[in-house]
Amino acid sequence: MKKFIVAMMTCLFMVFSLFGCSPANEQESDSNQAAQSENDSSTSDQEENQTSIPEDNNSDSNTDSTNKTESDDSNQDDNSDSNQTPNTQQRISRLYYYDIEQNQMFYVDKEVDVIENAYVNALTEALKENQDNKDFVTINEDTFVTSATLDEESGILNIYFNESFHLSTNLGSGIEAGFIDALVNTYGYNYNVDKVAIYVQNKLYEDQRGPMPDGYFKVTAEDAVKYE
Q1: Is position 112 within any domain?
Q2: Domain for residue 219, yes or no?
Q3: 3-state secondary structure of 6
């Protein structure tokens, strides 16, 4: 009889031990899941302040450009994405020009073609192509935008040009200042910002007025006159 009682107690003890372990394991699992969830949340909260703006650079092989990986045409399928027509949108934009003869800033409202959302590049090309007055100072044909970023925290639009930008600024001091102001007004107005920084090969550009105290040019479009 005593052996039977001892055996029963042993069985009951083993059953209670099994039930006691289960919640502990469940608590440990819940704790690990909570820790993982906290790590995922922390990672998702880290965001960069700068927004990259897509640019479609129409440069030849001898000019500066961002590195691109080229693929062998023989390995490409006839139905590859390279054969598809680029996404192009028309957008009414305001282009600013400096008139040398009248020493006056003018603006022209025109429809520009924006390819693959590369708006900065579209504005740059429009400034080259839509010169309505021989006295307007415009950007050099060999000059193009390599990249552009909008710093959302500071509100500065950063425009990066290739080295040919210097060909566009081979002007007198007063003319160069007017040309730079026209560029800044064009980019700033259409992006609705009042601060534009210009870089040439990743170096902050300084015109003949000297370095900008805050590292950017202010948009000064209020004195511009509509060109008729």
Answers
A1: yes
A2: yes
A3: helix
Asked if pLDDT for residue 198 goes beyond 90, the answer is yes
Q: What is the value of pTM for the model shown?
A: 0.66
> CA-CA distances (angstroms) from residue 67 to 75, 81, 226?
21, 19, 40
Domain of 199 in residue numbering reads as: 86-226
Looking at the structure of the chain, the number of domains it has is 1
> Is 90 inside any structural domain?
yes
Backbone angles phi and psi of 51, in degrees to 5: -105, 120
| Cβ proximity of 115 and 91 under 8 Å | no
Burial class of residue 35 in the structure, from the number of CB atoms within 10 Å of its CB (0-12 exposed, 13-18 middle, 19+ buried): exposed
For residue 41, is it within any domain?
no
Q: What is the pLDDT of residue 129?
A: 82
User: 27: buried, middle or exposed (CB in 10 Å: 19+, 13-18, 0-12)?
Assistant: exposed
